[in-house]
Design goal:
The chain is mainly α and about 400 residues long. It has 15 helices and two strands. Helix 1 runs antiparallel to helix 12 (about 275-305) and helix 8 (about 205-225) packs antiparallel against helix 12.
C-alpha cells in the first residue's frame, strides 16, 4: 500500500497513549480468545509426557478430552500470564511498527527499494521489543499448559521457576524466539500488506479484508516457522521425561533443542502440532489485525471530528467570502477585515494566522483580561506575547 494513504497510519493528532492502547487491546484479544487452542498445540508438541492422554489429530477432540479429564477451566490455566505479557508486548510491537513504517516508507518513493522491504524491517524490529516482554510470559504460560504441570496458578509457577532455576530461565528461549519470530513477523507483515493491496486497494476501513489478510498472513508465517516453534516449546517447558532420557538437568540453546527433537521424534517431530498452530494463528492474527485496524479507524474518526479547516488568514478570508455572516471575523469588532497596515488590527492579524484551536483560546484569554482590567487600565498586556500590547 502506498505510504501516502491517510488511513494506513495513525492520525497525527493521536497521542502515543492511544497508539499503545490500540496495540495492547489487539494483543490481549488475540491471545486470550485463542488460548484454549494454544493449550492443545502445546500439548501436541510434548515429546515425552508420561501421563495417559488422549491421542488424536483433531483439535476439538483433544480439547474436549482435556475438559472432561481435567475440568472446564483447565484449557485456560495460564491465561493470566499471557494477558499480562501480551498487553505491553503488543503495545510496543504496534507502536514500533507504525513508527518505522511511517518514517521509512517515503524513502521507497521513486527508488529501487521495495515497500515490502520496509514492512519486513519494521516488523522484525518490532519483534525484538515484543519478544523481550513476551518471553517470560510464554515460559509461565507453557509450563501451566503441560499435562504434567504441577502448578496451580501463574504466580506460583513464576515464583517456583525463579526460585529453582533463576532469572535466566525466563529468557532461556529468547534467542530461539527471535530466530523464529523475526522471519515469522517479516513474512506476516509482507503477506498482510500485499493482501491489503489486493483486498483493500483504497486503504479504507474494511473489516472483511482485515480478517482475510490477517488470517492468511498468520497461516503462511506459522507454517514456515513451525520447526522453530517446536524447539521453543521444548526450551520453555523443559519436559521432565525428556531431561530424564537425556540424563541432563536442562536443555539449553537452539541447536541442542533441535537435536533433541530429532533424536526423540525424528524429522516429523519438527511438525508436531502443525495443524493446531495454523488453526491457532489464523484466527488469532485475524483478531489482532481487526481489533487494531478498528482502533485506527476510530482514532481517525475522532481526529476528523475535531479538525479545523480555517487554519490561516487566507483560509479565513476564503471562508468569509463564502459565509460572510458565519465567519469568526464577522463576529469580531465592527465586522471589518483585518489589515496589516492598521496598528489597531495587528493583534487580530496575528491571532488569525494561528490554528483555530489556539486562536479561540487566545481570544477567550484576551477578552477575560480586558474585562478584568478595563476599570484601572486602558491597555491590556497579553501574557502569551509579552512584548506586544494592544488597545482595549
Amino acid at each position: 500500500m502506498s505510504g501516502e494513504d491517510v488511513y494506513e497510519s495513525l492520525p497525527d493528532g493521536s497521542s502515543i497513549g492511544a497508539t499503545l492502547g490500540a496495540g495492547a487491546m489487539a494483543g490481549i484479544m488475540e491471545h486470550c480468545v485463542m488460548f484454549p487452542v494454544d493449550c492443545v498445540k502445546t500439548r501436541m508438541q510434548a515429546l515425552a509426557c508420561d501421563k495417559p492422554k488422549f491421542q488424536s489429530a483433531s483439535i476439538v477432540k483433544n480439547l474436549l478430552f482435556i475438559v472432561k479429564d481435567e475440568g472446564v477451566f483447565r484449557p485456560i490455566q495460564g491465561v493470566q500470564a499471557m494477558a499480562a505479557g501480551a498487553g505491553p508486548a503488543h503495545a510496543m510491537y504496534f507502536a514500533c511498527y507504525e513508527y518505522l513504517k511511517e518514517k521509512l516508507t517515503p524513502y521507497t518513493v521513486n527508488s529501487y527499494v521495495p515497500e515490502s522491504l520496509v514492512h519486513a524491517f519494521a516488523g522484525a524490529s518490532a519483534t525484538v521489543l515484543h519478544d523481550g516482554i513476551m518471553t517470560p510470559a510464554e515460559v509461565v504460560k507453557q509450563r501451566m499448559q503441560m499435562c504434567c504441570s504441577p502448578y496451580k496458578s501463574s504466580f506460583t509457577c513464576a515464583k517456583t521457576v525463579y526460585a529453582s532455576e533463576g532469572l535466566g530461565a525466563f529468557y532461556r528461549s529468547y534467542g530461539t524466539m527471535l530466530t523464529m519470530n523475526i522471519p515469522f513477523q517479516a513474512t506476516h507483515f509482507i503477506v498482510y500488506e500485499k493482501m491489503q493491496d489486493l483486498t483493500n486497494p483504497k486503504g479504507e476501513y474494511n473489516p472483511p479484508a482485515h480478517l482475510v489478510s490477517g488470517a492468511l498472513a498468520g497461516a503462511l508465517a506459522a507454517t514456515i516457522t513451525m520447526p522453530l516453534d517446536v524447539c521453543k516449546t521444548l526450551l520453555n517447558t523443559q519436559e521432565a521425561n525428556v531431561l530424564t532420557k537425556l540424563n541432563t538437568k536442562k536443555v539449553v540453546g537452539l541447536y541442542s533443542a533441535a537435536r533433541t527433537v530429532y533424536n526423540l521424534a525424528g524429522p516429523m517431530g519438527y511438525f508436531q502440532g502443525l495443524r493446531a498452530r495454523i488453526l491457532y494463528q489464523m484466527p488469532s492474527t485475524a483478531i489482532s489485525w481487526s481489533v487494531y485496524e478498528f482502533f485506527k479507524h476510530y482514532l481517525n474518526g475522532r481526529n476528523k471530528d475535531i479538525s479545523y479547516p480555517e487554519d490561516t488568514l487566507a483560509d479565513l478570508r476564503a471562508s468569509q467570502k463564502a459565509h460572510p455572516e458565519g465567519s469568526l471575523a464577522s463576529r469580531g469588532s465592527n465586522d471589518e477585515e483585518p489589515s496589516h497596515g492598521d496598528k489597531d488590527r495587528l493583534w487580530d492579524a496575528i491571532v488569525t494566522d494561528l490554528p483555530r484551536q489556539v486562536r479561540v483560546k487566545q481570544e477567550v484569554l484576551a477578552e477575560s483580561l480586558r474585562e478584568r482590567n478595563s476599570v484601572n487600565s486602558d491597555l491590556v498586556h497579553e501574557r502569551t506575547f509579552p512584548n506586544y500590547r494592544t488597545e482595549v
